[in-house]
Amino acid sequence: MDQVTIIEGAIPQENDHGSEMGLIRMILEDIRCALQRDPAARNGIEVLFNYAGLHAIWFYRVAHWLWTHKLYFPARWLSQFARWVTGIEIHPGAVIGRRFFIDHGMGVVIGETAEIGDDVTLYHGVTLGGVSLEKGKRHPTLGDRVVVGAGAKILGAIEVGKGSRVGANAVVVKPVPPNAVVVGVPGQIVRRTKQPTDEMPDLHHDQLPDTLGEALRQVMARLERLEEDVHGHQDGKIKTDEKGYWIGSDFSI
């Protein structure tokens, strides 16, 4: 039995609308979420004291309460203090759902009108930014179970559909449908034909499509067919070895 279960068992299970009890339950839920999504997390006590991503979220929850009660200056001051302590900047006006997890976290920026669903995971260096000077909605909306890889930038008042995954360092500037994968700069969207079989976030960052490589292969295949039709020979082909590397002797670097 881990520390989270022990602490959770000490809390009365009847419905309690008190803000303090709600905060305790929220902290326990966030700790359990970190234990599920980070293989490096060994126990609840370690997560409680050492995970800056969770600390940033807890600071945000308090700052957001202040913001919604029109206490704007203390809300912004607390968010900036959290930025100084954790390296993560979350505007108190953002709307964030349950079981939100920031892994490592350094350099994450979440703008004022950003909206984030439940069970969303962000890695370090992610920006949910705006592209307009006008007031109103100008930051992204992330659906449930979205995963955003390290260094990715999602810009503007666009929506990323639930269950989608944004690859590391991608720059997303247009809406993403549900259960899609986005890679590249600017982000190229690939719909997934295989639907997820469970409700857990898809954390397989190694399974990303090579959209540019596939497009280049199609162009080369078409060029080879045209050369065969016009010239009737096979010279000039670029060949690959068993690992997919190009090989050839008719060029120099």
- With strands numbered from the N-terminus, the spatial order across the biggest sheet is 3-6-9-12-14-15
Tally of extended strands? 17
Order of helix and strand elements from N to C terminus = HHHHHEEEEEEEEEEEEEEEHEE
Q: What is the CATH first-level class name of the largest domain?
A: Mainly Beta
Shape designation:
elongated
Distance between the termini: 61 Å
Oligomer: single chain
CATH topology of the largest domain: UDP N-Acetylglucosamine Acyltransferase, domain 1
Classify the secondary structure makeup into a structural class: alpha/beta
Keywords for this structure?
17% strand, 6 helices, 2 domains, 253 residues, alpha/beta, elongated, 6-stranded mixed sheet, UDP N-Acetylglucosamine Acyltransferase, domain 1, 5-stranded parallel sheet
Give the SSE map.
Layout: H1 3-9, H2 19-37, H3 44-50, H4 52-68, H5 72-86, E1 89-90, E2 95-96, E3 101-103, E4 109-110, E5 115-116, E6 121-123, E7 127-129, E8 141-142, E9 147-148, E10 153-155, E11 159-160, E12 165-166, E13 171-172, E14 180-183, E15 188-191, H6 211-231, E16 239-240, E17 246-247
Parallel strand pairs: 1-4, 2-5, 3-6, 4-7, 5-8, 6-9, 7-10, 8-11, 9-12, 10-13, 12-14
Antiparallel strand pairs: 14-15, 16-17
Give your account of this protein's structure:
α4 (52-68) runs antiparallel to α5. β16 and β17 (246-247) form a beta hairpin. 34% of the residues lie in helices and 17% in strands. The termini are far apart. It contains six helices and 17 strands. By secondary structure, it is an alpha/beta fold. The chain has a six-stranded mixed β-sheet with strand order 3-6-9-12-14-15.
